[in-house]
Amino acid sequence: MAMIDEPLYPIAILIDELKNEDIQLRLNSIRRLSTIARALGEERTRKELIPFLSENNDDDDEVLLAMAEELGVFIPYVGGVEYANVLLPPLETLCTVEETFVRDKAVESLCRIGAQMKKNDLVDWFIPLVKRLAACEWFTGRVSSCGLFHIAYPSAPDQLKVELRSIYGQLCQDDMPTVRRAAASNLGKFAATVEQSYLKTEIMPIFDDLTQDDQDSVRLLAVESCAALGKLLAPLDCVAHILPVIVNFSRVLLDKSWRVRYMVANQLYELCEAVGPEPTRADLVPAYVRLLRDNEAEVRIAAAGKVTKFCRILNPQLPIQHILPCLKELSSDSSQHVRSALASVIMGMAPILGKDATIEQLLPIFLSLLKDEFPDVRLNIISKLDQINQVIGIDLLSQSLLPAIMELAEDRHWRVRLAIIEYIPLLASQLGVGFFDEKLGALCMQWLEDKVFSIRDAAANNLKHLAEEFGPEWAMQHIIPQVPDKISNPHYLYRMTILHAISLLAHVMGIDITCQKLLPVVIASSKDRVPNIKFNVAKVLQSLVPILDQSVVENMIRPCLVELSEDPDVDVRYFANQALQACDQVMVSS
Amino acid sequence: MWKQFLSKLPRKSSKSDCASDSAHNHPGSNASSSGNSIQRTNSGNAGPGRSTSVKRMSSAVFPSSVVAGIEPLLSFKDVSNTEKQNLFISKLNLCSVVFDFSDPNKNSTEKDMKRQALLDLIDFVNSGTSRFTEPMISASCKMFAINLFRGFPPNYRSNSSCGGETEEEEPRFDPAWSHLQLVYELLLKFIASSSLDAKMGKKFMDHSFILRLLELFDSEDPRERDCLKTILHRIYGKFMVHRPFIRKAVSNIFYRFVFETDRHNGVAELLEVFGSVISGFALPLKEEHKIFLWRALIPLHKPKSVGVYLQQLTYCVTQFIEKEPKLASSVIRGLLKYWPVTNGQKEVMFLSELEEVLEATSVVEFQKCMAPLFRRIGFCVNSSHFQVAERALFLWNNDHVMSLVAQNRQAIMPLIFPALEKNSQSHWNQAVLNLTMNVRKMLSEMDEELFLACQRKFEEDEENRVAVEEKRKKAWERLEIAAAFQPMTGNTAVLVRPVMAPAIAATLT
């Protein structure tokens, strides 16, 4: 090959490719940046490639995004951590572009690099970068800087730390709400690196200001950071500084924005641990009860969704006294989404309350949710059956359970049917064989003939799971006898489902049953008049080859495949040949 | 206090009240309050109870020094001129109670009373009496704030079990509109009124007031946004001092929409206001305004909902170019930056905007951006979405565009020819084929020699395409090999290198 003698200019190739008007080619070459770097060697990568990238960042956002990502893992190609600082300039520029995705990725990569850099290098290179970004004229740089402080701060000498804290304080008061939002959402991360003594004196005032911002979008993010801050503070300080803010936000009158209350509802349980039991009882429980009764459904949804997490932290008396009455109200809430959120977590209350309270108080709620008119609510209850089974056993529920399952199994929305099928193995394990055979067995076969493919597919998988749960003998009794009937369905799509089910079952049932009962059915199907069935037979046979005896393969499977490989249909021939190759391979390897 | 007022009302439905009372009042009076006949009889003896009730509420709203001390249900006609000011404030206080409209039957009498008070206030402001005093303005702004500045309810989630495939969203109408509408009307009349002195008004219609008013543009109710549009326009016109702030605040809304949330209901309305704001800019354009074009308007082309407000956006953009033709090339480059690549509908819209912008573009500006522009148009011409291809080919029907192309044919024809050729060979749509043939013909008539040269070049390129592809693959392969030879810090490849090198060298020779 003559080309080997030509000198190789990796940079030239890159430049060439990046000039191409086809964005896909530009993208491909950026994705192979590491190859170029390796070809160049470390020194030339530092001196040629990285400067070139720093200057050429006027490309499509998609290319820039790829570049930002690649540079994040580039340390080995520039010569290791000692040289990591050369990667900062191109990423700094990417931190200031317009597109949010590119900026975020650049920040992520900078954090990744900064986390590996030596302390001195951070002081010399990284911190100045953070300061430059924070002082950018255009908001994009300032927004990006907010996500870098937690990397920069720990390595800074005291004097610089003072400066960094004050810069962060300024960012929190920035003229542009976008910057304040970025500062608010990164506050928790930054605060975690700040010394205890400054937390109270400098970070908490910032937090207070943010919670009183005139934009609800900023307040919202400040509230989001309260749990993180709460965990950093000593319980007493948390009670003094954070608790009042949060409790106030939970009142409708003080914050008209339901979004803020929604956020409080989501965060409240995390504060319980931070403030300790007594303030929790005195302040947080009443606040939480207020949120459970909020006017806005969205807030109730958030609060209801956290009920288990919240109650788990409390002493069991409190939930019974204060929370349970609310749950009773919520179980007949006018919003189906509230009921649905409640249904998805309420099962978790059973272990917290203990058997007696569960039977007395929770059971009626379960039952009413199980009869809800909205299918999602019922599904959510059924999906967590195992939790209640542990506490009170399923007998108390089974009577209401069955009608609910039956109704869901025939729901007109296929997604609902799909969901219930996916819970069948769980139900089977909880209810036991006896109950299952009696009531649900027929359903499982019926789904194989559903109108929607996803349901038939799930039904086939379900049979496999059941066979695993109850064992091959059970399957011999309940599933296998129905196969011959089903495989003669006049519609080829249903026949295909059965083939699929067979291929799944074969792996569970063991060699004997497969050879005696399943294989003949498959072989017989190779005579089907529909080509799709025939090439699926080939596929199924191929999947059976590795698990069957070689004699079976040679005597039964191969002749069938040979016949199929001469089929008039091109696809059938293709898959038959694929399967034959698989047979050959097994021959060779054995 | 509502109970106290109610106790003075006859237990009749207030509508019939109005009818019977109007006969009793001055004929043609439109300020009739449902309770005013009763008021007159009561004003003497109900004194103490009334005044305390008013005071109690007023003190919550604003300092007691300006307590109105007058029955709010009176009619403006029935009080002396000196009392009118107090009555105005008293009625405003009455209207500062917000009712729950989720249940239409709740407090219906009180709701009617408030409605009537609002109508009275509107009439009063309309009648254009003397200047509004500071307490009057203060009380008005309080009332507007209490009624209007509210958090919007969450969007209805699409029913999850239905699969959420309903993309089309019906506009939501605020149930409290019957009151809101009147409050908005009053606000509009109030701002527009010559009785409102801008210097005094700006103290109360301050930054925070404007900010919260702007937040309301996110309302789902199109009627509300329409009111807000007119009001913002008036505020911008009347309060010169607030103009820079309004522009900044609106930019912030746009930034948040474009770079963070991708959701806002009122972008079209805000842009509509800005359309006339921009047309009012003085020449030469300030740098601040150009920055608004580049950093707010151009990025507004990115969100997926651009179709909702593109018309207004295009208007704003063309306003800029009409003011300052030198902006055209940067606008076109901006459009190219945000050009949609997977959304045919959006692409068609962009092509329309592009044509409008090109209409206003001079040759000099055109030359600055024609290469990337026609590369993009070439892609559009080849689009398998026939509407996109059609729309792109229609550009040649525009005389101005055609003349720009003709003047720069040396640069443009080589860019566009391959696209036309590919279409004529393989586009599936007959209409696109016909249009392609037309454009081809136009170009060949424009400059046959050049046309033939392009054709030759195209054929050559087609022949070389495979070779070029092959060359690229080779180059990368060699690069990979070269890379494998290089040592790398902290990488095990260093150890494998001596072993691998001969093997690779062997395969190469």
From TrEMBL, chain A:
Gene: LOC103702393
Alphabetical keyword list: Repeat
Family of the protein in this entry: Belongs to the phosphatase 2A regulatory subunit A family.
SUPFAM superfamilies with a match to the protein in the record: ARM repeat
GO molecular function ontology, one term from the record: protein phosphatase regulator activity
InterPro entries: ARM-like, ARM-type_fold, HEAT, HEAT_type_2, PP2A/SF3B1-like_HEAT, PP2A_Regulatory_Subunit_A
Cellular component GO terms held in the UniProt record: cytosol; nucleus; protein phosphatase type 2A complex
Protein name: Serine/threonine-protein phosphatase 2A 65 kDa regulatory subunit A beta isoform-like isoform X1
PANTHER family: PROTEIN PHOSPHATASE 2 (FORMERLY 2A), REGULATORY SUBUNIT A, BETA ISOFORM-RELATED, SERINE/THREONINE-PROTEIN PHOSPHATASE PP2A 65 KDA REGULATORY SUBUNIT
HEAT repeats: 10-48, 164-202, 203-241, 242-283, 284-322, 323-361, 362-400, 401-439, 518-556, 557-590
Pfam families from the UniProt entry: HEAT, PPP2R1A-like_HEAT
PROSITE patterns membership: HEAT_REPEAT (PS50077)
Residue ranges occupied by any Phosphatase PP2A regulatory subunit A/Splicing factor 3B subunit 1-like HEAT repeat domain in the UniProt entry: 279-354
Source organism superkingdom: Eukaryota
TrEMBL record, chain B:
Biased composition (Polar residues): 27-54
Alphabetical keyword list: Cytoplasm
Compartment(s) of residence: Cytoplasm
Cross-referenced InterPro entries: ARM-like, ARM-type_fold, PP2A_B56
Top-level taxonomic group: Eukaryota
Keyword Transferase: no
Region feature (Disordered): 1-54
Predominant localisation class: cytoplasm
Gene Ontology cellular component terms for the protein in this record: cytoplasm; protein phosphatase type 2A complex
One annotated GO molecular function: protein phosphatase regulator activity
Gene Ontology BP, a term: signal transduction
A Pfam family the protein falls into: B56
PANTHER family: SERINE/THREONINE PROTEIN PHOSPHATASE 2A PP2A REGULATORY SUBUNIT B, SERINE_THREONINE PROTEIN PHOSPHATASE 2A 57 KDA REGULATORY SUBUNIT B' KAPPA ISOFORM
Family according to the record: Belongs to the phosphatase 2A regulatory subunit B56 family.
Role this protein plays: The B regulatory subunit might modulate substrate selectivity and catalytic activity, and also might direct the localization of the catalytic enzyme to a particular subcellular compartment.
Name the UniProt record assigns to this protein: Serine/threonine protein phosphatase 2A regulatory subunit
Organism: Phoenix dactylifera (Date palm)
Gene (UniProt): LOC103722712
